[in-house]
Write the structure tokens for this entry.
Amino acid sequence: MYSFDYHKPITLDQALELFKGADDPIFLAGGMTLIPTMKQRLAAPTDVIDLSELGELRGISLSDKGMSIGALTTHNEVASNALVQQHLPVLAQLAATIGDNQVRNRGTIGGSLANSDPAADYPAALIGLGGTVVTQSRSIAGDDFFLDLFETALQPCELITRIEFPLPDRAAYAKFRNQASGYAVVGALVADFQGKIRVGITGAGPCACRAIGIENELMQNLSVDVLDHVEVPDVGFNSDIHASAEYRAHLVKVLTKRALKELLSQNN
Amino acid sequence: MKIEIDVNNSLHEVTIEANTLLVTVLREHLQLTGAHVGCDTSQCGACTVHLDGRAVKSCAILAIQVADSKVVTIEGIGEVGNLHPMQSAFREHHALQCGFCTPGMIMQAIDLVAHEENLDREKIREGLEGNLCRCTGYHNIVSAIESVAYKA
């Protein structure tokens, strides 16, 4: 790892000031991606700004707008939180499938979303649930958040403070897990908001996206069988050592079916 | 720079660089060599220690990040003649072959039993996702953890 200056601000304003004053700074949340990346010298920031003291980035609360989750909330905190388990169980279940236990004890929801790894799990939830990313200066609709591989709508000095999720009537997540890394080769989150169906897909393309074609079919006929007739084009999908684009397109359909089957088994 | 770090309930002052990893401080500054560096890419879990009571991989954490936290290593949970119940269980069930992964397995197993309800063999195997045993001695490791979970 290259050397860098380390900062641990105690307020959000301090964190932003430090960021503005540095050459090539980076924010550090849980560090489960950033630190291994720096160890491999794939990242070489001049300044690392540790966010762990920022209390305003923590906490889970429920309001009439839905579930609000602080950016620094760890995956295990989301998975084990009673409010999330009761009102947004799909998110608790999704969080429990991320990485391994040690990673879930450190990795954060804000860090995962800001990183926009094409195979991360949370992006499927942000898209599939139609969530909103809240930063220090604005709210960004989940549909507008992911731009490309490891690229989001966040500006350089913009920090996620919390994520807001509306509460669906029912929802389910299914993923095809890479055996070695635990990342999603493909993951599908299907949510039902009073008959309005959203499908968020991760792992297939350069960043998480909605499966609008599938959503439209399901809004006409909410059944697993209808998906047999849907064509999922593999245009623009990732093709790598883990899976071809064609196989990923197939997985989109299979995992959407699995999630839908689980969703339909839930009481409305 | 100098930092104070609380390891196994005692405060240590160490001089480090910002890019020094927690596992490096444990092994090279404090001579606590129980936490092993197996892969150094945060996959094998041999470096697992407890940070404020939860299992973490000390090769993926900067030492300076934990200056205000409590770290517990395998050396801090028991001693010869007074083993931690999880250590005793590993001994009774012959849950180690070469022993390299054992400190990380035990630290993760303690977290698992403390935080997961209704552990069964399948859940224990899932819980060990972040720990690799290259002797592939998982069967007896699962049995050891199961025996502690049932007593808990």
Remarks:
- Chain B touches chain A at residues 17-19, 21, 40-43, 45, 48, 51, 54-57, 60-62, 64-65, 108, 111-112, 115, 127, 129-131 (CB under 8 Å).
- Residues 2-75 of chain B form a domain with the Ubiquitin-like (UB roll) fold (CATH 3.10.20.30).
